[in-house]
Each structure stands twice: as C-alpha cells, then as structure tokens.
C-alpha cells in the first residue's frame, strides 16, 4: 500500500498436487516516477517458464530505456526479450514449459494491462465489471488465422488446441510450438480516475468458475 492505492494477493493449488501459478508485485521508482507492477503467470508443462517470467519480466521492463517515454513499446519489447532469454536458458534441454502473463503497470494516472495467454484482467469502473484483456484461445478467428499463416494448425482435442496440444494461442516458452505460439502482448490502456474502483488479475483457475461480474 502507498498513498494512492493498496493491493493484495492470494494463491491456492486447489486439489492439484503441484502449483504452476505465480504472481509478482513490485513498487519501484523510475526516473522520478513511482510505478506499480503486478502480474499473474500461469505455467504449463511444469513451473519453470512461469517462475522465470516472474523473476525477470519486470526487471527487463523497468530497465528498458523507453519505459516512461514509450511504455507500450517498452512492454512489448520486455515481453519478447524475456521470452527469447527463457528459451535460450532452456537451450540444452529438450523441454517445453510455457506460461501465460497478465500484467498491470501503473505509471502516474495511466494503467497499462498487457496480456499473453488466458489469464485475465478485469476492472470495476463505475460499478461495472469490464474485461481489459482478451483470453488468447486458438479458436478465435484472428488467432487461428495467424497460426495457420505461420504454417501451424488448430484442432479439437477436448478443447481447441494449437497443433492438437496447447489450449492457449500465445505464451512464453513452448519451444516446440514457438513458431505459432508467440509472446506478443495485447496492451490496453485505462485512465486511473475516481471511477476506477479496482482491478483483478487472475489465472483461468478463477475465471473458469466465476464470471467477470
């Protein structure tokens, strides 16, 4: 908590034997600006990718020379740099861990939400629940088109999956599907004013069982 906002977090594996979801919260100073960085990272194929993104994404973003002057491009660069560095770190091993990332970046009266995968950000503005990120699923028309244009395919295997394997169409990691499963974030900006009451970032473990409202 600081003078402008407060935040909290919770995490539970439910009935699963292992935990692959991680969160990160960070308040920092950049060029005289107080910034807040908050993220949820939902791993698949093991926890390594989610742990790596948790440990490195915000540091890569804060150190970007354009973090204050061109925040959106800095976010996009940081997402892609973190992804490529994670893949390099896994280079000598035949591994295919991946992770979503839903992040909220507070810079002054600007809130930037950047999303890769199906963890979701929802704000409450004037008493109304509004999703400020889009779940990246392979059956979305534009995502399917992008995957097919890159030489991939989407097929039904209990749910729609990239290559019949992965149920999200964008992610960090996922080496074997990297040509199709990109870490390019979709970024939405919201103004922080008196009508913006709160923001929730959560993995699909929550949104699969509750509505945005």
From TrEMBL:
Task: Tell me yes or no: is Transmembrane among this UniProt entry's keywords.
Answer: no
Q: For this protein, what is the EC number?
A: 3.1.3.16
Cross-referenced InterPro entries, in alphabetical order?
Answer: PP2C, PP2C_BS, PPM-type-like_dom_sf, PPM-type_phosphatase-like_dom
Annotated PPM-type phosphatase domain ranges read 6-213
Q: Which family does it belong to?
A: Belongs to the PP2C family.
Protein name (Swiss-Prot/TrEMBL):
protein-serine/threonine phosphatase
What reaction gets catalysed by this protein? O-phospho-L-threonyl-[protein] + H2O = L-threonyl-[protein] + phosphate; O-phospho-L-seryl-[protein] + H2O = L-seryl-[protein] + phosphate
Origin superkingdom: Eukaryota
Q: Name one GO biological process term.
A: regulation of intracellular signal transduction
Q: Which UniProt keywords apply?
A: Hydrolase, Magnesium, Manganese, Metal-binding, Protein phosphatase
Top-level taxonomy: Eukaryota, Viridiplantae, Streptophyta, Embryophyta, Tracheophyta
- Does Hydrolase count among this protein's keywords? yes
Indicate the enzyme's highest-level EC class.
hydrolase
Q: Which cofactor does it need?
A: Mg(2+); Mn(2+)
Q: Which GO terms describe its molecular function?
A: metal ion binding; protein serine/threonine phosphatase activity
